[in-house]
Amino acid sequence: MHVQIFLAIAVFALVAAARFEDQAGAYDWYKQHIGIVSSAQFHPSKPRVCVTTEQSVVACLNLRDGSIAWRKPLQALGAAPSVAYVESLNSLVTASGGYLHAFDLEGGLKWQRKLPTQTAALVAEVQGKATEKVSGAILAVQAGAVQVLDAADASQLSKPHQLKGLAKDNVVTANGYLVAYNTGSKSVLLASAASFVAGDAAAEVAVEAPLGLSASAAGGPAGFAAISDDGSSLCVLQLGGTGDAAFSCQRLDALVPDLSATSPLGRKLIATSAGFVLVGGDAGAAVLAAGDGQLKLLRFFAAATAASAEATVGDDAAVGLVEGPSGDKLRLLVVSVSSGEVLQEEDFPAAALRRAAHGAPLQPSLVALGAFRKKDKSWGVRALVVFRCGLTALLQQGVVVWSRDESLATIGQTLFVDLPANGTALKGDAGAKADINTRIRYQVLGAKVQLKLNTPAEAAELLELRGLLSDKNTPTRDVNGFRKLLLALTGTGALTALHNGDGRVLWSRTFPPDAVPMRLLQWRSYHDITHAPEVLLLREAHPGAYVAAINAHTGEELWKQPLPHGVSRVVPVPAPLIEGSAVQSVYLLVDHTPAPGAVPVVTLLPDTQASQAHFASSQRSPYLFWEGSQPGTLQGFSLEAGAAGAGIAARLAWQVALPDSVLALATRDPTEPIQSSVKVLSDRTIKYKYLNPNLLFVATGLANGAALDGDDSTAVTAHLVDTVTGRVLYSQSHAGARGPVTAVVSENLVLYHFRDVESGRFVACAMELYDATPGREFSVLDYLFNPNSTQPVSSLTPTPIEAVSQSYFSRIVPTGLAVTRTEQGITAKQLLVITNTDQVYALDRRWVDPRRPKKQKLTQDEMEEGLTPYQDTLPFSPLSFATLDKQVLGLRGVAVEPTRLESTCLMFVHGVDLFYTRLAPAKGFDSLEDDFNYALLIAALVALSVGAVVMNYMTKQAQLAWKWK
Amino acid sequence: MADLKSWKMDFESLIPDRKSQSDPPGYDASIAKDPIGMLSSSKAKDKNALARRQQALYAKATAPIKQVGMMCFMAWMFGNSIQIFSIFMTFNLISAPVSAIMSSGEVFPRDEEWKQLDTLTPRALYCLVNLGQLIFGLYKLSAMRLLPSSPSDFISTMPVPPVLEHAYPAL
């Protein structure tokens, strides 16, 4: 037992990738974001603004500096939650991802309630008439089901209702009613919220609108209003009055003549207590008052670009309108909703905002207005303005108090590229040069700290100097390839270049909403240092599909080429095309296929003679495969290169129908470097790794989320499919298992996780594949002297597979898998497990070695091979988290890039938060640490030589003295 | 340090090194050790001396056996693990016999005076003994798995075989 404990401790000591306290932040950085704000509410008593974001985060920001006071992720990341602020309880109720949550404004979760389905839900406070006293009741509407809940404790105030008619595209609450309609349709359903609260059989009233209604609608005390589908009219439904509710539509050109000429896109309606505010994109805003079922224009603000919801400023109900930014001014108007008068007017400098947005156009998309009492007892206003580029800023008393660039919370794709070489540094980003005295001071302090002769102040100074002197932030490439430019394509339509040293933005380029690129791809890199690498941006949606090459160092667009068809898939061809000193990436673009069974149209990008020749140069015609349009099918197509510009002919080569639904698919990265194709066991026997790149891992089983009925047994089956022939090479089944399945294929290892139904735990199954060709001989002489001794392999004559597999329970719940990658592939690999807690766990590959012997006492041979005794559960060490102690909220992707040092690779993790670090899966065996103290080394050498000289002299003196005795 | 005595100067000290002091004229060390040999007949002297010299040579040739045995025993005691002492030991096991065999000519010089003396056989014997140690050293190396004796030692950098067909995933 003691031996086991000792062994465990020794093993953990080996794998610990932990950092010392003073190393925190030396190789890593972490940036917290909240996402693009979709709704905002000022805290009634504290200097805070509480927001919900499109990335499904609820957060409160400090009004003084914009720091995050607290934030909570909601279940479904990726969609703005429906939110209701219950004023009487000071709580935010959100509906997202099939759950209702109520938070108090201090970040405490008050309650959580599951909704029947996962679909989008609406949550709203019941706004009855003041006499009805239904304060604190909320309505949750989801797919026609209505629940009335107490916002304080989620107790049901009345029995749930099921109204089929409410299951429509748009559900709006207006003056105590629920208004539901489908976009473009004329029929509108009305249901009284009060009747739900009372538990009565809800009275549904169907109202016919004169025109089809668009999704731009708003409901408030003044009733319900929607812009007609054709954008010509504004239709209003007065509610709460006596008699039948009826729509009245007014033509916009009569109502607001200035607005009608502009494009109907981007029009937005905001309900106020007296009427509505119609914001026409960038074309101005009209404050409208409702009366007698008709709307009346109070005032039109031609320069307004956004409007806030109604807020109380002193005794007035007012909305905040933002004008501009035009020139260097951004103007905030506080406009009374009842009279249209401008109550207050403030100008803000736009230059700071433009700088913070990295040059992106500033188009306000959301404004929240808050009032506060100034010191002289008059009322002042502050406004939280959210711009389309993701910039969130707080404006107050003529200054931009703070701004946050939240566009990086929406990163979709990333790419590491080389920085410019020395001398061609990026403009305006010259690193601070430290003088020699500072360097000497740094070395001396380092020596002092190492010898523990320092004071705490000196230790702090050392840390500061380390940051100052570190060359990790220099905007040029380094010998080891540690410094890289990190290109990120964000959901706000910006391509941003970050320096991987500290995550600062070097340049950013924003695209207009109708030309937002969907994909960021490698395009052209050069071996000579004078050329900047080029990246490719691709927009798939037709019309407007295009490809454009961007200079990765400056963000300049080199060329742009529209595509005649939309693109459904982009397939990289692994072998790049070498053109002189340039390395050109080649892609296959699969056009949108009209019918599911039709043959896809494939074009080559770039479509040149050279690329066609390169494509046709492989010995046999290439294949293409994907998941078929029918669920559970896989299709492979053989491709035939034609003349340049003629496209590539694709022919259906094979089709596989799998019995269950596909839970996971994984292929090996074809560019993954592999050092050796054999594995030598401790008894000197040779095992040939099965390294067929045309291998697809498919896990099938009961669909995720599907109900498990009764004693029906469920199983996850893993198949290995050859993607050239469609042949199933191997399959194994796990009884009593179900999804979700995450899988990764690296070298000859397949690792996949599934859930064991009985124990409720996740199981990691590792499968190592070996070539099991019988009688395969190896001749040393042949290998050494015959250059043709390695025979090419073909999928058409398949080699038998020997699969060694082993399953382990996993303590962590995986949601994704990645693997480290180094320059030559010699360094032992680590598997990067993305956990459900939004962290990344680095698991050494040896822990999932299927050959781990099932005994405690290992033989000499087994120990020499680095095997560890089998345990049913994978080891879990808190020190093995690659994300250290950080949580990358809403983790969406992990990007790994090798450096030129074999031991090290770079990892960038992005979600709502960003995290970057260096990984050394087998420790830094080929480099000294960055903070290696050269001064101490030199001092020691000098001291030794001086000592030697002195001792020599002293010996001579002593000898002479002795001889004279 | 040996002659670090109080320094004094007299005639005796003119002799630079007492050890290399030359023998008096006419003094023969061999005759001084074996006065009878001088007196016996030259033929008998020759025969006995030859046999004795031959015996001495054989004794010299087999002298390293004990040493080799000791070394092998020690090497065996150290085991097959790779650590600094066993590495030194094994290096010594191999280098010592090689250098001994290389310099065996100096150990068994051809005596011009005794032409009939057989130096070749004792020298071969000497080499054989040392070869024994060398073989043990190599065995030791092989036991430590430092000898490239199996095909797997040549294969570790075998490249990945090329693939004739390629299929591109479009998942």
From TrEMBL, chain A:
Residues 746-964 form the ER membrane protein complex subunit 1 C-terminal domain. InterPro entries: Beta-prop_EMC1_1st (IPR058545), EMC1 (IPR026895), EMC1_C (IPR011678), Quinoprotein_ADH-like_sf (IPR011047), WD40/YVTN_repeat-like_dom_sf (IPR015943). It holds the Pfam family EMC1_C. GO terms for cellular component: EMC complex. Its main location: endoplasmic reticulum. Residues 20-406 form the EMC1 first beta-propeller domain. GO terms for biological process: protein folding in endoplasmic reticulum. Residues 1-17 form the signal peptide. Keywords: Endoplasmic reticulum, Glycoprotein, Membrane, Signal, Transmembrane, Transmembrane helix. Belongs to the EMC1 family. This is ER membrane protein complex subunit 1. The lineage of its organism: Eukaryota, Viridiplantae, Chlorophyta, core chlorophytes, Chlorophyceae.
TrEMBL record, chain B:
It comes from the Eukaryota. It is found in: Endoplasmic reticulum membrane. Keywords: Endoplasmic reticulum, Membrane, Transmembrane, Transmembrane helix. It holds the Pfam family EMC4. One of its GO terms (cellular component) is endoplasmic reticulum membrane. InterPro entries: TMEM85/Emc4. The chain crosses the membrane at residues 84-103. It is a multi-pass membrane protein. PANTHER family: ER MEMBRANE PROTEIN COMPLEX SUBUNIT 4. Belongs to the EMC4 family. This is ER membrane protein complex subunit 4.
